[in-house]
Write a structure and sequence with these properties.
Distance between the termini: 41 Å
CATH superfamily: Class I glutamine amidotransferase (GATase) domain
Number of strands: 12
Strand order of the largest sheet: 2-1-3-4-12-11
Strand content: 25-35%
CATH architecture: 3-Layer(aba) Sandwich
CATH topology: Rossmann fold
Radius of gyration: 17 Å
Number of domains: 1
Number of helices: 7
CATH class: Alpha Beta
Order of helices and strands: EHEEHHEHEEEEEEEEHHH
Shape: globular
Length: 250
């Protein structure tokens, strides 16, 4: 294949020391493994608060979730890169934001134990607010990706504005979930979800869509093809989904 002969695919994991409370860096790992299994050379990038961000746009950006304290500490450094991330998103770089990271990329965010809204990254129209803690598995139905498995462990609710395209519809929400209808955001190159844990490893169709979006920017979208290794882990994901559906009665 020609993908290995061109520059590496570059995946940027944002603030992994702050935004990995539920194993969300596994999303970056899931993309990396699937690309490597398909024969692509990979460059995995990480930035933490205070680091210099890449000058050249990466091919995908991952923003995980952190504790409320971690979000509060890291938000100023994230906002310092707001224009950069917005430009990348506008250029078609896929951005995946999950859990608390999903809250921080809204237009405004009111963190738990705070009353005054803060500016968020503003990657989509909407707001995030504090809510009662809820934790548990969720099932989501998406026209594009089929049934998705997730897990939430949050004290926050993200409320997209009217007209923002949701990622999915909840089939079986977590206990006391205040968002019983649509879930997440699938807007342009942005994928956002309350669910983490990690989301992409549990949902291969979603991971492969992110990969194809990333490769399409460089004209390599048609080079990505899954093989035997993908099939093995996809079968495990399918079995896990089937067990979850049985557990939740869906």
């Amino acid at each position: 294949m020609t993908g290995a002969a061109t520059r590496p695919v570059r995946i940027l994991n944002v603030f992994p020391r702050h935004f990995d409370v539920n194993g969300d860096s596994g999303n970056a790992l899931a993309l990396a493994r699937r690309l490597e299994w398909a024969g692509f050379e990979l460059e995995r990038l990480e930035v933490d608060p205070g680091d210099v961000w890449p000058g050249e746009a990466p091919d995908a950006v991952l923003i995980g979730g952190g504790t409320v304290a971690a979000q509060r500490e890291a938000l100023p450094a994230l906002l310092a890169e707001r224009d950069r991330v917005r430009d990348w998103l506008a250029a078609g770089v896929p951005v995946v934001a999950v859990g608390g990271g999903f809250a921080l990329v809204a237009e405004t965010v009111t963190l738990p134990e705070e009353e005054t809204p803060r500016a968020g990254l503003g990657l989509f129209r909407g707001t995030a607010r504090a809510s009662t803690h809820r934790a548990g598995p969720v099932l989501m139905a998406s026209e594009r990706y089929g049934v998705l498995a997730g897990f939430v462990n949050l004290r926050q609710t993200v409320e997209p504005a009217a007209g923002v395209r949701p990622l999915a519809t909840l089939l079986s929400p977590a206990p006391d979930a205040p968002w019983p209808g649509s879930e997440g955001v699938d807007e342009g190159a942005l994928l956002g979800s309350h669910s983490h844990g990690p989301l992409l490893a549990r949902n291969p169709a979603l991971a492969d869509d992110v990969i194809r979006r990333a490769l399409a920017r460089t004209g390599r979208g048609e080079e990505y093809a899954t093989g035997e290794r993908h099939a093995r882990v996809d079968a495990l994901a399918a079995d896990s989904l089937a067990r979850l559906r049985e557990q939740l009665g869906r």
